[in-house]
Amino acid sequence: MYAFTLERPTTLAAAAQLTADGAKALAGGQTLLASMKQRLASPDQLADLSGIKELSGIRREGNDFVIGAMMRHADVAANAELKAALPALAGLAAHIGDRQVRAMGTLGGSVANNDPAACYPSAVLALGATIHTTARKIAADDFFLGMFATALNEGELITAISFPIPKRAAYMKFKQPASRFALVGVFIAQFDAGVRVAVTGAANGVFRHAGLEAALSKSFTPQAAAAVKIDASELNSDIHATAAYRANLISVQTQRGVAKALG
Predict the structure, then answer these.
(1) What b/e sequence results for 108-129 when a residue is b if at least 16 CB atoms lie within 10 Å of its CB, and e otherwise?
(2) Mapping DSSP to helix (H, G, I), strand (E, B) and coil, where does residue 263 land?
(3) Contact at 8 Å (CB) between 89 and 114?
(4) Cα three-residue angle 246-120-170, rounded to 5 degrees
(5) 3 state SS of 162
(6) Based on C-alpha coordinates, what's the Rg of the chain?
(7) Are residues 129 and 198 in contact, defined by beta-carbon separation less than 8 angstroms?
(8) Alpha helix positions (H), the chain
(9) Which run of H or E residues covers position 133?
(10) 150 near 112, Cβ under 8 Å?
(11) How many whole angstroms separate alpha carbon 56 and alpha carbon 206?
(12) pLDDT mean for each 10 residues of the chain (263 residues)
């Protein structure tokens, strides 16, 4: 490590001012602190967001769940109302990393970081969520721009995310055993207007799969998903899995997810 200043703002306004002045926001620290230890990041000043009450809480507003950016994975997983009305999202949170990661990692930190194998971005994209920030509201389809890249401007903080409640939903993750990140994760959400399918872990960023969405919007069955050919040409191929293997996993996990959603 090296010398840096740690600030602990207690209001959102104070945190926004610190980040506008160049401080790096510290949420759960699951990525930032590891990057600092490896000298991949070297901020001079950190703004710890954990003491800001405005960034916590889970509440239902009509047909949406609004979840504060600083809600820990473990708290999202344990929320009774969320487990009853949107169990796919609570279940996703319950299987992120290990117990220690779930006790510290946050919703906002995960989404802002946009790791290409993280779980939460697939839920945000598949559910058509809205990201609330200190400056505006951003639709999920406009938020994720690629590997570790988002529509957030410098100093802009996520304050909450609102998730519409679908008719049915499921998240299926094939884990990389060591990291527990998604080798391939598929989140499926069925709404009256159609089906949204988001894939994480398979490419350089989370993405929606148009072919699966079209097929499942016509027939929400595992058979319909199985009939869709998954193009492997733009998928990752590395020491963990080939692109062809990931393409097969997308198909299999989607079929399993539909079956799970149908219950």
Answers:
(1) bbbbbbbbbbbbbbbbbbbbbb
(2) coil
(3) no
(4) 70
(5) strand
(6) 18
(7) no
(8) 12-20, 32-37, 73-78, 80-85, 87-94, 99-104, 107-113, 120-126, 140-143, 210-218, 222-226, 243-262
(9) strand 130-133
(10) yes
(11) 25
(12) 89 94 93 88 93 96 98 98 98 96 97 96 98 98 96 96 98 92 97 98 97 98 98 96 98 98 96
**Amino acid letter, 3:** A
Residues 249, 184: contact at Cβ < 8 Å? yes
Give the tokens for residue 38: 């490896």
Mutual orientation of helices 210-218 and 243-262 as an angle, nearest 10°? 30
Structure token digits, residue 135: 């400056």
Q: Which pLDDT score is estimated for 1?
A: 60
128 Ramachandran zone, left/alpha/beta (phi>0; psi -120 to 50):
left
Cα separation, 201 vs 176, in Å, equals: 10
**Structural domains of the chain sorted by starting position, each given as residue range(s) with its CATH number in brackets:** 57-164 (3.30.465.10), 168-262 (3.30.390.50)
Would you state the structure tokens that stand for residue 27, as one six-digit string?
């949420």
